[in-house]
Amino acid sequence: MQVQLTNRQQHILWATVRHYIATAEPVGSKALLEEYNLGVSSATIRNAMGVLEKAGLLYQPHTSAGRVPSDSGYRIYVDQLITPSETLARQVEATLQNSLNWEDSSLESLLQGAAQILATLSGCITLITIPQNVSAMVRHLQLVQIEVGRVMLIVVTDNYETHSALLDLPPKGKNTQFDPEVIDRELQLVSNFLNSQLRGRSLLEVANLNWSDLDREFQHYGEYLKNSLAEFSRRSLTPGVTQIMVRGMAEVLRQPEFAQLQQVQTIIQLLEEEQEQLWRLIFEENETEEVGKPRVTVRIGSENPLEPIRNCSLISSTYRRGSSQVGSVGVLGPTRLDYEGAIALVAAAAEYLSEAFSYLNPS
């Protein structure tokens, strides 16, 4: 949403969100005048808050009450008005390093310890996905035509597990028909090429193939296979419904937003019985903005596609092994969240886990 705000309106929105996060009480102009150095009168503050309300960034829960931020107001606050706390990021990193020892820890115990620390520091529910099949290596791969325009991708790993997926072939051209015999020959050649490149490599690495080496004759398969194998790898690594580590329910239940039992029950049901949906939400494809710095995704309120958490904010990032994403870390709490701190916390945790994971034997 594009909303053009003056510097004064931005400052007043920042102060309103900050005050509401701290107090959980609707914010009036008098409170802002007393607690923030805005340099303007109470009437000017009221007028600015009225403009922000008309823009959909603030609203009044009751006629006689002050104003509270909307999801759109929080979005502008997060995107334009704050910077993640570098001080907190360093504190989180130091706490993780001092409290956890990856050299003497199993992967599971490391993640359990990290999840509990994050829950305590954030006051939110912490979610950390546990990588699956991380050490599985490709033993054999085959592309098999099963009908016109459709192919089955079959991958056998070094522990003789078989994974398969149905794929639609990419179109060759507007007026080109699929010739089954030609397709069979091409698929065998492409399968041979893939086996030579991928045999003995981790499932995590299948998207890192040098597609420029594919013969010119089969260039049209390149981007298609790259995307298909990346998605296949992600699906093969998708954990079962018990493979998200959850900590911090006690912390978040102290927040006034979770005073209603029904809302708490729907969140608990999501965490306990519908983890696959949640896993797909927090383990999304994330690109790094700069070397060594994971990107943090912030979903606020109605931006969350899952109904039980549409009144919550979910902040997440992925941790890596080398260039491959292997898991995710996130915090889930009310939209009235310390975003500066939570974003810094998640980024620091993802960076710590990425570093630790490169030293662990994830068998």
Automatic annotation (TrEMBL):
It comes from Fischerella thermalis JSC-11. The gene is hrcA. This is Heat-inducible transcription repressor HrcA. Keywords: Repressor, Stress response, Transcription, Transcription regulation. NCBIfam families: hrcA (TIGR00331). It comes from the Bacteria. Residues 108-343 form the Heat-inducible transcription repressor HrcA C-terminal domain. The keyword Transcription regulation applies. Negative regulator of class I heat shock genes (grpE-dnaK-dnaJ and groELS operons). Prevents heat-shock induction of these operons. GO terms for molecular function: DNA binding. Belongs to the HrcA family.
